[in-house]
Amino acid sequence: MTSRRRYSYIFLFTRTFCCVDHGRCFARCLAAMLFTQLPEDVLYHILFHLDRTSLCRLSQVCKSMNRFVNRDAVWRRIAKGCLNSGIIWNGTDIYPNIPLKERVKTAQNWYHGFCKNWTLLKWKTKLLPWLQLDGDVLYLSQAAKIGAYSLNHDSRRLQRIPENYSGHKGDVCRFVLTDSHLISAGSDGRILVHSRRRNLSLGLMGHSQEVNCLDSKNGLIISGSRDRTARMWTLTSSSPLGTIPMFDRVWSVAISPTQSSFVTGTACCENFYPLRIWDVERLACVCRLGSEFRRGAGVLDIVFESPFQLFTCGYDTFVRQWDLRLSPQKCVMEWEEPHDSALYCIQTDGNHMIASGSSYYGVVRIWDKRQTKCLQFFQLSSDSLSSPIYCLRFSSSHLYAAVATALHSLDFRQQPAHIR
Q1: Taking a C-beta distance cutoff of 8 angstroms, is the pair 223, 231 a contact?
Q2: Whether the Cβ atoms of residue 389 and residue 405 lie closer than 8 Å to each other
Q3: 10 Å Cβ neighbour count for 389?
Q4: What is the pTM for the complete model shown?
Q5: Per-residue b or e along 70-92, where b marks 16 or more CB atoms closer than 10 Å to that residue's CB
Q6: 3-class state of residue 72 by DSSP
Q7: What own/partner pairs with CB < 8 Å and gap ≥ 24 does 141-150 have?
Q8: Of 98, 42, 46, 123, nearest in space to 77 by CA
Q9: 300 to each of 34, 191, 318, 391, how far by Cα in Å?
Q10: Mean pLDDT, to the nearest integer, of 359-378?
């Protein structure tokens, strides 16, 4: 079809569509027929300029138009600008099995704070739980054990899976998942490497005191402890490949996606540079992030969003974004917790959204990186039972948060009243 003929079709469509306002049913059918006969590349070009509301209305014209408008390619541009749509910074789609149109709809609920709060589990003894989410399976640490639960999004209950990981003589402080292993760190100073495919475990005498943090990628393990050291291991080593004296309690570690370096976050009590980047090969400090940290401004969580984008939070009540390509002395963005609470944990959607967990009243906050103020907040524990959010994880439609005595789920698929 020639370019001139294509644009004559578009002219016919736009001209005829104007008659719809005058109640011309025949004109509407004719417009739809001509419009759907356009080549797909022309249709994509036209739909590229429509917003979410216009696309939804256009999908109601006829069945063929509905099928075309519901394609992921039509919604991709809009999804890139939404919160937690599954399209991350480099264009990768991390939820390819969920239609983009549905994710854009759910993203509006994330933005406006429309959700339902369910309590999935309760326990009596106050604990320091930790979470990991792997598809439809949620892993939860309670005291010295780690349990696996199958998620049924249409039910308020968790289904226990026979998988159970134990072996620590004290509480599990942290654990991470890889494709083949679950690696846990305990208050007994040990690191346990559990196989997820076979009933095998390897115990490492990690540190002389509790292991506060842990990260692992492709066989590399980095641990940090109350004994003021960080250590590097492999999945098969029985002793550390190297030990770094930190001269301060190590609260958090994160391995870069390139695996060439890792970041440590310390308590900022003895050494006033709590954020440092280390070279994996030489175990030498290559960079210190930030300056003029106050005493006690410890870093409690570190998240790599890309090889050059890093997010941190901690006792000084700020979420900070660091760009490792720029000057390390100053962060590129920061967001302050408005109630002066420490921030225990963070997670990002890889694009525009940050979720943070505060130290009081089980407060979860949703942040839009394009704004300076908190977008939404949810209080998950009562005033009489104030608890930090020890850990949170989210999928495209649900956020899971662990407090001292319960596991909560926020379901963003529907539009109930605000939770406050």
Answers
A1: yes
A2: no
A3: 28
A4: 0.88
A5: ebeebbbebbeebbbbbbbeeee
A6: helix
A7: 141/171, 141/172, 141/175, 141/184, 143/171, 143/172, 144/168, 144/169, 144/170, 144/171, 144/172, 144/186, 145/172, 146/172, 146/175, 146/182, 146/184
A8: 46
A9: 59, 19, 11, 11
A10: 95
Structural tokens at position 359: 């130290």
Tokens 């570690």, residue? 253
Strand partners, 301: 313
Buried-exposed string 271-285: b where 16+ CB fall within 10 A, e elsewhere: ebebbbbbebeeeee
Structure tokens at 256: 């870069």
5: enclosing H helix or E strand: helix 3-17
- The terminus-to-terminus CA distance of the chain in angstroms comes to 57
Structural tokens at position 225: 């402890």
Which is the CATH superfamily of the domain at 114-411? YVTN repeat-like/Quinoprotein amine dehydrogenase (2.130.10.10)
DSSP structure string for 201-263: EEEE---SS-EEEEEEETTEEEEEETTSEEEEEETT-SS-SEEEE-SS-EEEEEE-TTSSEEE
Which tens digit of pLDDT belongs to each residue from 375-405?
999 999 876 778 999 999 999 999 999 999 9
Confidence of residue 260 (pLDDT cuts 50, 70, 90): very high
Specify the 3-state DSSP secondary structure of 375.
strand
Residue-range domain boundaries for the chain: 1-69, 114-411
Report residue 286 as tokens.
């290559």
Share of the chain above pLDDT 90, in %: 67
- State the Cα–Cα distance between residues 89 and 72, nearest whole angstrom: 17
Q: Which residues contact 44 (CB under 8 A, 6 or more apart)?
A: 73, 74
Phi then psi for 46, rounded to 5 degrees? -70, -45
- Distance between CA atoms of residues 153 and 174, nearest Å: 26
Question: In Å, how far from its chain's centre is CA 245?
Answer: 31
Residues in the chain: 420
Residue 69 makes CB contacts below 8 A (sequence gap 6+) with 47, 55, 58, 59, 101
Show the tokens assigned to 27.
């004109």
The set of residues, in sequence order, having a beta carbon less than 8 Å from that of 386 and lying 6+ positions away, is 360, 361, 362
Token pair 């850990």 in the structure block, residue: 391
The mean pLDDT of the chain is 87
